[in-house]
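Chapter review: from sequence to fold.
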Amino acid sequence: MDSHKKKLRPIMIALALLCTLIQCTSEDPEVEPEQCDCQSATVAERKDVEAVVVLIAGNQAPGGNQGPDKYVLSTEPKDFERAEYSLGENILVPCDSLPTQYQKARTKVIVSYKRKKCYGAITNPTLRTNYGYYIDLTSIGIKP
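The token string follows.
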């Protein structure tokens, strides 16, 4: 048994070194890929668009949003006056969270943004679908 352990020791050390060398980490947080990056591709820039703040509540039952509350935007006009929201291309997910003063569901806002190329920012396991676009929010204000 002792000779078997002696033979395994160099192999274990080599594997540990290999794992250490293969890791792709960086001390610079800017180098790490972001979920919202989408290869940094933006396909559309929009200015002064009417939207409404939508709350996707967190800590839901299995199949729902398991994470924290999410505040996203909907540009669908029929969502402006109702409690529900439409799933689709109208949903905009800011790469950085909405500023705190706008984190109130049903708040009507005027936004400018750069939309990312990739679609499917939000996953809904219950419906087995993804929807929405990531955006870089360039300005936001309360709709007068």
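Two observations follow directly from the output. The radius of gyration is 22 Å. Residues 17-33 have pLDDT under 50 and may be disordered.
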